[in-house]
C-alpha cells in the first residue's frame, strides 16, 4: 500500500468529556528520524485509561494539547528511519504507546516494537497489549500465583477483569469475581464464581464460601474503601494487588479531584507496610512503570500472550468494533459501564485477514 499525502487522527482538543475528541485530517505524514519507524496503525483499543488521559487525570502523558489518545496499537511497518535494522516494511508490530495510537500513522522507536505473529488477527492482538499484559504481569510477576490458589477479581467483567479470568483459568486458579447484576452470567461463563457487588457484601460471601479461610490474592482497582475490605478477606500471607482508582477516575474531572483518593491510597498502603496483619502484603502495579523497569519482561510477556492466543488458550473478548472516527462513541460506551471485555477501534485493513 502506497503511503497517502495526508492522514486522519483523533485529537484531544481540550481535557474534558468525549466531545473533546475530534476527527481531523493532518499532513504531511510524519517522517521517521534515526532509530524510528513509521507505523500504519491497523487497530487500537479503546480503554478506560484512555478516558483518564482524555480527562487530563492520567499522570503518565508527556504531550501538549492537542494530541491523540490511544494506549496501545497493532500496525504495519510503513517506513524506516536511518539506522533501523532487524525490522522490515510490511511487518506487523504491536506497542504500548500510552498516548498517540488513535491515528492512521504514527512514529515509534524501533526498539519498542514487538512482532505480531502471522495467524493472529490485529484486532485480537491489540486486546492483548494493555489489558491482558496488565493481567498477565499482575498474576505471574507480582502475585506469582500457583495452581489451586484462590483469588478474588474485582470488576471481573471489565477489560482487565476478563483477562485476569481467562489467564487465571489457564493457571488453574479457583476464582471469585465481583460484577454488577447484569453481568453475572458473563462472569460465570469466564469460569469465575460471580458475586453481585450491588446486592451482596463480597466480604461476607468470600468468608462464607472459603469456610473463613479467605483468598490468596485479590486484584482490586475499584477504590480505597474497597481495598480495605479486600485486605480483610486475604488469607494469612495473602497479597492485595491494587492497580487503579476506578471510582474516583470515573467521577472526578481534574487532577486535583483524584489527588485526594491517590494520597489516601498511598497512606493506606504505607500503613499496611508498617503494620501488616498476618503477613499480608499489598502492592501497586503499573504497566508503564513495569515496562520502564523491566523492558525485557514486556517483550517476553507479550510474546507469551500472543503464543497463548495462537494455541487457542485465550479468547480475546471484543465486545464491539468501531471505526476510529467513532472513538468518542467508544468512550461514551465505556463510561456508561455497558462494555463486557473490550472495544477495538478499526483503523486500516489488516494484511493477514
Ligand atoms: N495500573 C495499570 O497498569 C492499569 C492497567 C490497565 C487498567 N488499569 C485500571 O484498571 C481499572 C479497570 O480498567 P479496565 O480497562 O478493565 O476498565 P473497564 O473495562 O471499564 O472495567 C471496569 C470494571 O469495573 C467494574 N466496577 C465498577 N465499580 C465496581 C465496584 N464497586 N466493584 C466491583 N467492580 C466494579 C465494572 O463492572 P460493572 O460494569 O459490572 O459495574 C467494570 O467491569 C481502571 O481503573 C484502569 O485505569 C490500570
Tell me about this structure:
It is a single chain. The model has no long low-confidence stretch (mean pLDDT about 95). The two termini are about 15 Å apart. It is built from 11 helices and 15 strands. By secondary structure, the protein is α/β, with parallel strands linked by helices. The protein folds into 2 domains: about 5-125 and about 295-345, Quinone Oxidoreductase, Chain A, domain 1 (Alpha-Beta Complex); about 145-285, NAD(P)-binding Rossmann-like Domain (Rossmann fold). The strands form 3 sheets. Strands 3, 4, 5, 6, 7, 14 and 15 form a 7-stranded mixed β-sheet that branches. A 6-stranded parallel β-sheet has the order 10-9-8-11-12-13, sandwiched between helices. Strands 1-2 form a two-stranded antiparallel ribbon. The structure holds NADP nicotinamide-adenine-dinucleotide phosphate. NADP nicotinamide-adenine-dinucleotide phosphate binds near residues 48, 131, 179, 243 and 339.
Q: Report on the biggest sheet.
A: 7 strands, mixed
The CATH homologous superfamily of the largest domain is termed: Medium-chain alcohol dehydrogenases, catalytic domain
SSE string, helices as H and strands as E? EEEHEEEEHEHEHEHEHEHHEHHEHE
Tell me what portion of residues adopts beta-strand conformation: 15-25%
State the end-to-end CA separation: 15 Å
CATH architecture of the largest domain: Alpha-Beta Complex
| Domain unit count | 2
Q: Shape from CA axes?
A: globular
Mean pLDDT: 97
Q: Which regions contain 5 or more consecutive residues with pLDDT less than 50?
A: none
| Rg computed from alpha carbons, rounded to a whole number of angstroms | 20 Å
Question: What oligomerization state is this entry in?
Answer: single chain
Q: Which bin fits the share of residues in helices?
A: 25-40%
Secondary structure class reads alpha/beta
The CATH class of the largest domain is identified as Alpha Beta
- Beta strands, count: 15
Number of helices: 11
Chemical compounds bound to the protein: NADP nicotinamide-adenine-dinucleotide phosphate
CATH T-level topology of the largest domain? Quinone Oxidoreductase, Chain A, domain 1
Amino acid at each position: 500500500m502506497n503511503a497517502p499525502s495526508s492522514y486522519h487522527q483523533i485529537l484531544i482538543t481540550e481535557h474534558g468529556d468525549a466531545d473533546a475528541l475530534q476527527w481531523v485530517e493532518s499532513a504531511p505524514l510524519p517522517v521517521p528520524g534515526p532509530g524510528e519507524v513509521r507505523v500504519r496503525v491497523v487497530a487500537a483499543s479503546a480503554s478506560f485509561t484512555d478516558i483518564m488521559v482524555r480527562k487530563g487525570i492520567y499522570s503518565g502523558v508527556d504531550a501538549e494539547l492537542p494530541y491523540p489518545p490511544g494506549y496501545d496499537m497493532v500496525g504495519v511497518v510503513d517506513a524506516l528511519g536511518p539506522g533501523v535494522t532487524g525490522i522490515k516494511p510490511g511487518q506487523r508490530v504491536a506497542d504500548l504507546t500510552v498516548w498517540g495510537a488513535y491515528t492512521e500513522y504514527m512514529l515509534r522507536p524501533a526498539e519498542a516494537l514487538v512482532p505480531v505473529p502471522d495467524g493472529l488477527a490485529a484486532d485480537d492482538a491489540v486486546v492483548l497489549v494493555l489489558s491482558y499484559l496488565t493481567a498477565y504481569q499482575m498474576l505471574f510477576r507480582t502475585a506469582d500465583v500457583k495452581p489451586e490458589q484462590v483469588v478474588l477479581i474485582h470488576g471481573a467483567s471489565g477489560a482487565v477483569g476478563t483477562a485476569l479470568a481467562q489467564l487465571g483459568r489457564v493457571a488453574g486458579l479457583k476464582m471469585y469475581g465481583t460484577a454488577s447484576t447484569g453481568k453475572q452470567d458473563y462472569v460465570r461463563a469466564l469460569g469465575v464464581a460471580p458475586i453481585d457487588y450491588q446486592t451482596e457484601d463480597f466480604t461476607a460471601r468470600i468468608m462464607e464460601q472459603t469456610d473463613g479461610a479467605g483468598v490468596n490474592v485479590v486484584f482490586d482497582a475499584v477504590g480505597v474503601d474497597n481495598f480495605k475490605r479486600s485486605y480483610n478477606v486475604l488469607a494469612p500471607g495473602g497479597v492485595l494487588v491494587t492497580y487503579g482508582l476506578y471510582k474516583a477516575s470515573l467521577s472526578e474531572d481534574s487532577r486535583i479531584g483524584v489527588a485526594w483518593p491517590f494520597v489516601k491510597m498511598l497512606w493506606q498502603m504505607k500503613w499496611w507496610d508498617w503494620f501488616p496483619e498476618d503477613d499480608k502484603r499489598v502492592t501497586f502495579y503499573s504497566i508503564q512503570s513495569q515496562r520502564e523497569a523491566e523492558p525485557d519482561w514486556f517483550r517476553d510477556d507479550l510474546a507469551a500472550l500472543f503464543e497463548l492466543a495462537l494455541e487457542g488458550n485465550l479468547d480475546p473478548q471484543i465486545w464491539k468494533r468501531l471505526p476510529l472516527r467513532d472513538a468518542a462513541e467508544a468512550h461514551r460506551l465505556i463510561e456508561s459501564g455497558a462494555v463486557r471485555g473490550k472495544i477495538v477501534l478499526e483503523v486500516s485493513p489488516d494484511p493477514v485477514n
